[in-house]
């Protein structure tokens, strides 16, 4: 069984990425990698096989490390750079996409929505607890019939005196069944609005999605709202329309640009170790030309993806990134990461299908990462619109 606990020197030296990072960025990356090795990796196979994860325990650990909402300002957040946040996503997804999803949904979706668009009272009430991992948040946008077309959502909020009453449902909501607070997006007579909803609110129901074949070390939920009554101050006051949720999605997509490369790197590191130790026809599997060709091609794509992620991080920290630039990063890095995971599985052959090795677990997870926060097709159309000036969205 391969157990990856330190960077592969051959791979690290070939890519040379470390030399492009600042000392504090390397220190952060090492800290998160050590946390993953010590606290998460020993349990991943068990969690994945069981289809569950101790989300609250992990959230508290991430909070202690300052990783929840780390790129946000104030309210107990670490105020890190975008690049540092990306590197943390890379190291967590090198462990498992489900763990990175927990961090991303908490910080880049739920906390970002409250930080950017919430009232001061909402920020004070939720952000310090969420940054510490003492409260878990979720982000209710996707619906059973509306994923890539969020503007068609059927969840509706209507005014009733000074209150709001919400009816509808959401689907595929990471952390939904264990969340303490949900940011829910709903149609109103005043465009789409966001609401900060304590999950103990009467009329709020969350059930766990079971029998998943991907992101099994993650808790996914379906949310239902039946005459859920909220006070008038539950609404996010600073935004209306799709601009609110889509801007949060862009933050999450940025983390995935880095995260997908973490999964790919973990697959390649494990496969290099395996190929060097595996004997086939009296010599190392790594000594065969076809094996080396596969390894070389994967290392090239990994290097390009990591450089792309780092470039977007530096842009975001300086002049800012556009939505189409983030889409380019997510499209490329998810596409290449899943190719790397699948190719690694061919080198490991039958051993690669077991949970003794990470490659098929990563490949299964990346099937979901390819489609959430915008499918590959959506990102192709975003890039296409940037290139042509013509929108093909209906």
Automatic annotation (TrEMBL):
SUPFAM superfamilies per UniProt: Acyl-CoA dehydrogenase C-terminal domain-like (SSF47203), Acyl-CoA dehydrogenase NM domain-like (SSF56645)
Superkingdom of source: Bacteria
Annotated ranges, domain Acyl-CoA dehydrogenase/oxidase C-terminal: 241-387
All copies of domain Acyl-CoA oxidase/dehydrogenase middle, residue ranges: 138-228
Annotated ranges, domain Acyl-CoA dehydrogenase/oxidase N-terminal: 23-133
Coiled-coil portions: none
GO terms of molecular function: fatty-acyl-CoA binding; flavin adenine dinucleotide binding; glutaryl-CoA dehydrogenase activity
Entry cofactors: FAD
Keywords carried by this UniProt record: FAD, Flavoprotein, Oxidoreductase, Transit peptide
InterPro entries, per database record: Acyl-CoA_Oxase/DH_mid-dom, Acyl-CoA_Oxase/DH_mid-dom_sf, AcylCo_DH-like_C, AcylCo_DH/oxidase_C, AcylCoA_DH/ox_N, AcylCoA_DH/ox_N_sf, AcylCoA_DH/oxidase_NM_dom_sf, Glutaryl-CoA_DH_mitochondrial
GO process annotations (BP): fatty acid beta-oxidation using acyl-CoA dehydrogenase; fatty-acyl-CoA biosynthetic process
Membrane spanning residue stretches: none
Gene3D superfamilies in UniProt: Acyl-CoA dehydrogenase/oxidase, N-terminal domain, Butyryl-CoA Dehydrogenase, subunit A, domain 2, Butyryl-CoA Dehydrogenase, subunit A, domain 3
Family: Belongs to the acyl-CoA dehydrogenase family.
Protein name: Glutaryl-CoA dehydrogenase
Organism whose genome encodes this protein: Rudaeicoccus suwonensis
């Amino acid at each position: 069984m391969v157990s990856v606990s330190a960077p592969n020197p051959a791979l690290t030296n070939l890519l040379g990425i470390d030399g492009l990072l600042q000392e504090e960025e390397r220190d952060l990356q090492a800290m998160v990698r050590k946390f993953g090795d010590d606290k998460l990796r020993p349990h991943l196979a068990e969690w994945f096989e069981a289809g569950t994860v101790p989300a609250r325990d992990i959230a508290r650990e991430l909070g202690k490390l300052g990783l929840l909402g780390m790129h946000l300002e104030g309210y107990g957040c670490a105020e890190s750079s975008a690049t540092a946040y990306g590197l943390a996503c890379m190291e967590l997804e090198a462990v498992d996409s489900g763990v990175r999803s927990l961090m991303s949904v908490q910080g880049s979706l739920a906390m970002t929505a409250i930080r950017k668009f919430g009232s001061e009272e909402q920020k004070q009430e939720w952000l310090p607890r969420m940054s510490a991992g003492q409260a878990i948040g979720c982000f209710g946008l996707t619906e059973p019939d509306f994923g890539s077309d969020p503007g068609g959502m059927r969840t509706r909020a209507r005014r009733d005196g000074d209150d709001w009453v919400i009816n509808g449902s959401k689907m595929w909501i990471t952390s939904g069944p264990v969340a303490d607070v949900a940011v829910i997006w709903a149609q109103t007579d005043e465009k789409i609005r966001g609401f900060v909803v304590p999950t103990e609110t009467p009329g709020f129901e969350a059930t766990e999605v079971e029998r998943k074949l991907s992101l099994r070390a993650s808790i996914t939920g379906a949310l239902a709202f039946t005459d859920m009554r909220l006070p008038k101050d539950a609404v996010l006051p600073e935004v209306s329309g799709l601009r609110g949720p889509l801007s949060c999605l862009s933050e999450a997509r940025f983390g995935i640009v880095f995260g997908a490369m973490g999964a790919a790197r973990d697959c390649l590191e494990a496969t290099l170790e395996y190929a060097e130790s595996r004997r086939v026809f009296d010599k190392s599997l790594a000594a065969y030309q076809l094996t080396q060709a596969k390894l070389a091609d994967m290392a090239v794509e990994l290097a390009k993806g990591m450089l792309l992620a780092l470039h977007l991080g530096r842009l975001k920290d300086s002049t800012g990134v556009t939505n189409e630039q983030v889409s380019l990063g997510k499209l490329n890095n998810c596409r290449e990461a899943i190719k790397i995971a699948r190719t690694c599985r061919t080198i490991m052959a039958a051993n690669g299908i077991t949970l003794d090795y990470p490659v098929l677990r990563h490949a299964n997870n990346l099937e979901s990462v390819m489609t959430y926060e915008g499918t590959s097709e959506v990102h192709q159309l975003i890039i296409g619109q940037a290139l042509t000036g013509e929108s093909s969205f209906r």
